[in-house]
Amino acid sequence: MTDRRYYAFISTSGTDMQDEYAVLTQALLEQGIFSWSPAQSRMYELDFVRKQIDQCDYYILLLGNHYGRLDGSGASFMHLEYIHAITKQKPIIAIRHHWPDLNTPTVLDDPEARSPFGKFRRQVQERKQATFFLAYDDASNLSTAIKRHVPRCVNLYPTTGWVRANARQSTLNVSSDTLALQEEVIQLRKKLALIDRRVKETPALNPILPAIMKTMPAPVSHEAETLNFAFTVQAYQEGNFKELKLNKTMRWDEILTILGPSFHPPAPEDQFGRVINDYLNSSALSLAREQMPRAHAIARAQINTQSLHQIKTQMKNNHWIAPISRDERKRLLWELTEEGNQILQKSFTSMPR
User: How many CA within 13 A on the CB side of residue 323?
Assistant: First the structure.
């Protein structure tokens, strides 16, 4: 590991994993990863727990043989922590004594597999996106596995982390030069976008520029075209909940109507996922009822990662929402462009009153 340090949130079912938890935290510390778990606290404060997940670099699920303490909805706190980590698109390290083959008859016919805990374990194992699976034989073997495989996970799913002040000083000039180059690239991209628009407006004024512009990426979707995207959501019915996989089709100008106001003033890139998921939470109940007719509420919507990337890319290629600069935390900021604002205003004007 390098001088960079990381913060991990550890989710477990409770005291039944006390020995493994002690081994895990010590092994992580030796790898430069500090950790915290609500299972080690007497009080469970949901807002504080969610904030820790928001701030962590890696989410670690230490899965034992129990579902853990339940909240009012019937879901365990461990399960809810896992869902929140997925919503925040955190890299996940899932640790279990043994990961069975989901398609073997013994697993498919096991009554425990149909319990809330069995369904949760299957949900974890079926999710491959940004998830690193790790198995161990005993506590001593767990320590060896952590030291061997966690550095691989960090390389596969790099995060920001932090560097101590004295270590950061030696690379300060390099970091400043890198940020300056990144800022220059952003400004050049904005200039290219401006040239692109001007050439389309006056193509006959310069016969050379159109030929050059053929090599540049151009908007590929008109505002009236549609996008079909996938997402998951928890649907609640008669005191129980079930995770559903749904699809929704929207026009590009409708997507811009949802996203645009949240990027004026500029906002970090993770605003895309947050805004779309909030919209789905408030609007997708009718879609959920197509699978669960008596569903009375939905929560924790999560758009498919590939679909979210496609939306961000298209907003940028269409010059509707574009990266402009970085904030004090070096996060890339995106802003609603003038062209995007014009389409947004046109959409608002055409809405029925």
Answer: 21
Short-list 313, 311, 323, CA closest to 251: 311
Structure tokens at 205: 């004024």
Q: What is the mean pLDDT of residues 236-247?
A: 86
State how far the alpha carbon of 157 is from the alpha carbons of 150, 160, 334, in Å.
10, 10, 23
Q: What is the DSSP letter of 139?
A: H
Is 252 in the same domain as 339? yes
Check if the beta carbon of residue 251 is closer than 8 Å to that of residue 301.
no
What gap in Å lies between CA 60 and CA 223, rounded to an integer?
41
Predicted local confidence at residue 209, as pLDDT: 43
Spatial CA neighbour of 163 closest among 3, 290, 305: 3
Type of residue found at 254: E
- DSSP for residue 224: T
| Residues 194 and 242 grouped into a single domain | no
Say yes or no: 86 and 206 in one domain.
no
Question: How do beta strands 321-326 and 267-268 pair?
Answer: unpaired
Q: Give the C-alpha separation, 296 to 236, whole Å.
A: 6
Cα-trace Rg, the chain? 24
**Residue 139 in this model has a pLDDT that exceeds 90:** no
pTM given for the model: 0.49
Does the pLDDT of residue 171 top 60, yes or no? no
Domain-located, residue 221: no
